[in-house]
Amino acid sequence: MPELPEVEAVCRNLRAAGVEGLSIVRFRIERPGIARPQEVGDVEAAVSGCRLLRVERRGKNILLHLSNGQSLHVHLRMTGNLYPVPDPRFRPMATRAWWEFDGGRGMLFEDSRALGRIHLYPTAELTARMDEQIGVEPLDGAFTTQFFVQQAKRSGRPAKLFLMDQHPVAGLGNIYAAEALFRARIHPEVPMKRVSKPRLLALHGAIVQVMREAVDSAALAYAEPGRFVEGESFPCAVYDREQEPCTICERPIRRITQGGRSTYYCPACQRR
């Protein structure tokens, strides 16, 4: 599933392609299910004829702000991708929605498993909803050590589940939460309020470092429009490496289930 770095790469590629400021001549949704319960015709009519003012990412969400005071909320889910094209008339079969800009260029929402979603909301309402549901961005200046320690000491949740909860910190998913915990030498099942302050400071630094490396890696993987390579060149030390030797101590990596997802960790480097 695309995580924050992959979604950030999608947004950066769209901005680099110059889609911001372009007028939308036509917007079409090819698979009505991606917009339910909203009516496809209403969404298409509201978007067509507007300018795409800004492409924004909040957590794992893509927000396309329009000139009519409304915004499209795009969620890629498992296999979605959003990318610019020279001509939207020539599009793959897995295209679920497409935009035609003034001048003939376009943008496609491609999703082979059709799990992604696109919905239209008033910009002010969507912004308020994102602020309420999603926490501080890990690469934002507001993600300070003081803020992180304060949030952690209030939570009795296991470390891995705390990181994946989007309310304290936005955008951390399964892969990068596991990697950050490994770098900070924190067991994924330890309650956050029991983690020492020095370990929390190490975890804060690990989160920032992991996310910066992952964003750079994802940007390379998304360099070619329409191409998606999960994992890219990011060097996973524990994720998806069950029974493989730890890169530090050579003990076998273990896998447990937390919140219905697999968690990978080193039992020697990440002791309780």
Task: Outline the fold blueprint.
Blueprint: H1 4-16, E1 24-29, H2 40-47, E2 52-58, E3 61-66, E4 70-75, E5 80-85, E6 95-101, E7 106-111, E8 117-122, H3 123-133, H4 145-153, H5 159-164, H6 174-184, H7 197-221, E9 254-258, E10 261-265
Antiparallel strand pairs: 1-6, 2-3, 3-4, 4-8, 5-7, 6-7, 9-10
Helix pairs in contact: 1-7, 4-7, 6-7
Structural features, described:
It is built from 7 helices and 10 strands. It has 272 residues and is α+β, with helices and mostly antiparallel strands. It folds into 2 domains: 4-133, N-terminal domain of MutM-like DNA repair proteins, CATH 3.20.190.10; 145-265, Orthogonal Bundle (Helicase, Ruva Protein, domain 3). The strands form 3 sheets. It has a 4-stranded antiparallel beta sheet. A 4-stranded antiparallel beta sheet has the order 2-3-4-8. The protein has a two-stranded antiparallel ribbon with strand order 9-10. It starts with a helix and ends in a 7-residue tail after the last strand.
N-to-C terminal Cα separation, in Å?
Answer: 29 Å
Tell me the number of strands. Answer: 10
SSE pattern, N- to C-terminal: HEHEEEEEEEHHHHHEE
Which fold does the CATH topology of the largest domain refer to? N-terminal domain of MutM-like DNA repair proteins
In helices, the fraction of residues equals: 25-40%
**Arithmetic mean pLDDT:** 93
CATH architecture of the largest domain: Alpha-Beta Barrel
Whole-number total of structural domains? 2
Structural class by sheet pairing and helices: alpha+beta
- Note the beta-strand portion: 15-25%
* Order of strands, widest sheet: 1-6-7-5
Q: Tell me the name of the CATH homologous superfamily of the largest domain.
A: MutM-like, N-terminal
CATH class of the largest domain: Alpha Beta
**Uncertain stretches:** none
